[in-house]
Amino acid sequence: MFQIGKTLVSEELLNEDFVCNLNKCKGICCVEGDAGAPLDEDELTILDDIYQDVKPYLRAEGIAVIEEEGKYTMDSDGDWVTPLVNNRECAYLVFEENGFSKCGIEKAYEEGKIDYKKPISCHLYPVRIKEYSNFTAVNYDVWDICSDACTLGKELKVNVATFAKDSLVRKFGTEWYDELMTIQNELNNQKK
């Protein structure tokens, strides 16, 4: 691990390869798991504010769950998450004709209806963030359903940090990401 500002960053972001391979997984990460997508506290009001603009993009099942349970729920660990349909897929998930899973929030964003892309935890994946009182842990989350993404990342020679650049900049800023790339370059020079 190494430190950038108030973050502790796992070296796996620089050492592990990863590029989402939607042709293989079809977005299964939005379907599998034991809880909804983790939400930052500030995202709760965003979901409240954008829901009516996102609602036309959602499935009837998702709308029913959201309107019964709320736009976000608290999981067993006391963290805010998106609600689930049948304790399985995210309530904001839609299935496209090609069988791919897609975020209804992201669809609304892509069509210019809202200016919020999707929950930062979804955008960051496979990077996971854990807030502590004195620092933020930034880790690579290994999940067997993403094995094709690891294979594609290795083929393309793209590491997790490069794959997640846009989301890491969104979360931590350009200066933070530039420092991450400086560390990557230093580590690469040490290997030579």
Automatic annotation (TrEMBL):
User: What is the species of this protein?
Assistant: Chishuiella changwenlii
Q: Which domain of life is it from?
A: Bacteria
In the record, the note on similarity to other proteins reads:
Belongs to the Rv0495c family.
Protein name per Swiss-Prot or TrEMBL = DUF3109 family protein
Per its UniProt record, what InterPro entries does this chain match? Rv0495c
One Pfam family per UniProt: DUF3109
